[in-house]
Structures are given as structure tokens and as C-alpha cells.
Amino acid sequence: VGYDRTVFQTKMDWSQANEKAGTAYIANSHSTDTYQRMSLTANFAMDAQTRFVVIQPVIYNSQKERGSSEIVLKGLGDGQVRLQRQLLNQSPTLMHNYKQSLLVEAGVEVPFGSFDRRDLEGNRVNENLQTGSDSWDLLWGVSYTLRNMTWGLNQRVTYQWNTQNTYAYKRGNQTYSQTSLLYFNEIKRLQYSLAPLFWFEQSQADELSGATRANRGGQSLGTGLQVQVNYGNWVFNTSARQPLIQNFHIEERASISG
User: Fold this and answer.
1) Closest C-alpha among 172, 188, 65, 185 to residue 125
2) Please, which pLDDT band fits residue 94 given cuts at 50, 70 and 90?
3) Distances (CA, A) of 5 to 35, 87, 146, 235
4) Could you tell me how many helices (H) and strands (E) the chain has, helices first?
5) What integer pLDDT is reported at residue 20 of this predicted model?
6) Sign for the pseudo-dihedral over CA of 227, 220, 243, 111
7) So what's the pLDDT on residue 76?
8) CB burial class (10 A; 0-12, 13-18, 19+) of residue 225?
9) pLDDT score, position 136
10) Model pTM?
């Protein structure tokens, strides 16, 4: 059983208007978006190499625009069901003093969260802030870890294939890569690890009724920190991520900075 908390914050600058788009933006206007996720994770071992993982997040998203009130959306997020298989689990030997492991996984994201939260005027809030997707999506991933005593290195790559929901909205398929430097330590029965990390995400453009949505999808590069604590069968994990560079597919209308 595990608990995970992730915080992601980004600043969107709308000060550069795209005249060709015919949309006017206020000069020097921007919004600060904060995405927080708290997840409860349950692991069920099927055998020594295979486990079944269930993840249910609770979402707290907010957007603060200059000169306007803050928008807050909270509630259950989309759940995930994953099947993980350990392909390699090599322990230290007399010939070498390191440990390496290779894990692959596949799963599905279940639409438990809401996609139709609206503001006081009855307009649907920005799709990025919604707590759910209202779509059934497929997940694949691979994770490789190399560890030598208290230090290690992890490389993780995931791919998410998204489907169109009942509102004719389709999020772009996403590829995510994360490289983490690991430090492990132990205090009696308490084990913990610190992991400064760099991540890269590439997403296709979102679509509404088959038409590309402006300023959705693109490439992101950022950094972060992850802390994990293990005590018996319990795992507590918290992480924070911050984008350093982000480019939209249609970047004449807006830009994002960390």
C-alpha cells in the first residue's frame, strides 16, 4: 500500500497576441496553474516477478489569472490499473557490487474523474484543469534501475494512448521520459530515498470534434525532486516538478515559463 503526492506548477504568459487568430489578449496578462495529485496505491503480488497495481488519485487543480479570482477544481481523478512484470532483477555478486532491475508495465486509465466542471457563467473550465478525462486510455511503460550501495540511477519511459471522450474531446497521446539520480539510506526499519530528476514530455495536440485545439500539446523539459519513505508494507512518496522549457504546437498565441 502506498501514498503519493505530486505538485506541478507552471506560469502561462498570454501577453503576445496572435493577430492572425483573430483573438485579442490583454497585454502582460498571465495565469499561474498549479496541479496537485494525491494518490492511494495498492500492489498485489501475483508471483515473484509479477504484480497488479491499482492507483486512485485525488486532484486539486487551481488557476490564478491577473485581475480575476482563482479557479479551483478538486475531486477524484482518473484511476489506473496496471500489470507490471520484472524482467531483470540482478543482485550483487562477488564479481560486481551493483544491482540492476528492468520492469515493464501495461495498463488502462479508468475515467472516474469529472471532465465537465463549469464556472459561475456556465462555461466549461479549461480542459487542463479538469479532474478527469472522461475517456478510457491505454498505458505502456518501462523502467530500468542501476544501483551501487547507496547510490543509483533510474530511467523511466511511459507512453499513453488517449481516446476521444463523450464530449468529442481527445487529449493528445503522450510520451514521458524521466531520469533520476537516486540516494538510499536506512534508519532502523525506516528506509528512504531522495531522487533529483530531469524529465521530458512530448504530447500530440488535443482535438475537439477532430479539430486541433490551440496551445494544447507540445514539448516540455523540466526538473524536480522525489522523496520516498518505506516502512514495512507501506510506501509514502512525494514529488514536485517544475517546467524549465515548454513549447506549444501553436506557440504564436501563448508561451509557458517555469
Assistant:
1) 65
2) low
3) 11, 28, 25, 12
4) 0, 16
5) 37
6) negative
7) 95
8) middle
9) 97
10) 0.85
Which amino acid would we find at residue 1? V
Using alpha carbons, select from 245, 240, 169 the residue that is nearest to residue 207. Answer: 169
Cα–Cα distance for residue pair 208/7, rounded to 1 Å: 28
- What is d(CA 74, CA 72) in angstroms, rounded to the nearest whole number? 7
Residue with cell 522525489: 226
Q: What are phi and psi of 163, to 5 degrees?
A: -110, 165
Tell me the one-letter amino acid at 148. N
Q: In whole angstroms, give the CA distance from residue 182 to residue 200.
A: 18
Q: How far is CA 56 from CA 4, 81, 199, 228, in A?
A: 10, 9, 23, 18
The residues, any chain, with a CB within 8 Å of residue 254's CB and separated by 6 or more, are 12, 13, 14, 16, 25, 215, 248
Beta bridge partners of 129: none
Q: What is the CA radius of gyration of the chain?
A: 20
pLDDT above 60 for 129 = yes
Give pairs for 219-224: CB < 8 Å, separation 24+.
219/245, 219/246, 219/247, 220/245, 220/246, 220/247, 221/245, 221/246, 222/198, 222/246, 222/258, 223/196, 223/197, 223/198, 223/199, 224/196, 224/197, 224/198, 224/199
Q: Counting beta carbons within 10 angstroms of the beta carbon of residue 54, is it exposed (0 to 12), middle (13 to 18) or buried (19 or more)? A: middle
Q: Which of 66, 75, 1 is nearest to 36 (CA)?
A: 75
The H or E element containing residue 202 is strand 190-203
Is the pLDDT at 18 greater than 70? The verdict is: no
Q: Under 8 Å CB-to-CB from 154, ≥6 apart: which residues? A: 143, 144, 145, 146, 178, 179, 180, 182, 195
pLDDT number for residue 258: 46
